[in-house]
């Protein structure tokens, strides 16, 4: 019996999430996260790659684990602001 692998992409509705420095790559488009075309292009790429899904991360609030408060996250714009992913998904 063979087992099937499931491929799922992970993204976040902000300029960068878990890949610091990737924005400097010449082909990076993460700064376009506010444009619908960014997300439709990503969906097309994932479909061509036979991906099963796309997980769009969501965060309620800011990260406050560094020094016990959110000051550094706000000052450095670390995943701030994060837009509501439901705005990307049609009804």
Protein described:
This is Xenobiotic compound monooxygenase. Keywords: Flavoprotein, FMN, Monooxygenase, Oxidoreductase. One of its GO terms (molecular function) is monooxygenase activity. It is built from two helices and two strands. Strands 1-2 form a two-stranded parallel ribbon. Helices cover 21% and strands 11% of the residues. The longest helix has 13 residues, at 36-48. It has one domain (8-87). β1 (8-12), α1 (36-48) and β2 form a beta-alpha-beta unit. The chain has helices spanning 36-48, 71-76; strands spanning 8-12, 53-57. With 91 residues, it is α+β, with helices and mostly antiparallel strands.
List keywords for this structure.
91 residues, alpha+beta, 2 strands
Strand and helix layout:
Blueprint: E1 8-12, H1 36-48, E2 53-57, H2 71-76
Parallel strand pairs: 1-2
Q: Counting H and I runs of at least 4 residues, what is the number of helices? A: 2
Total number of strands: 2
Order of helices and strands: EHEH
Structural class: alpha+beta
Major sheet description:
2 strands, parallel
Low-confidence stretches: none
Principal-axes geometry comes out as: globular
How would you write the strand order of the largest sheet? Answer: 1-2
Percent of residues in β-strands: 5-15%
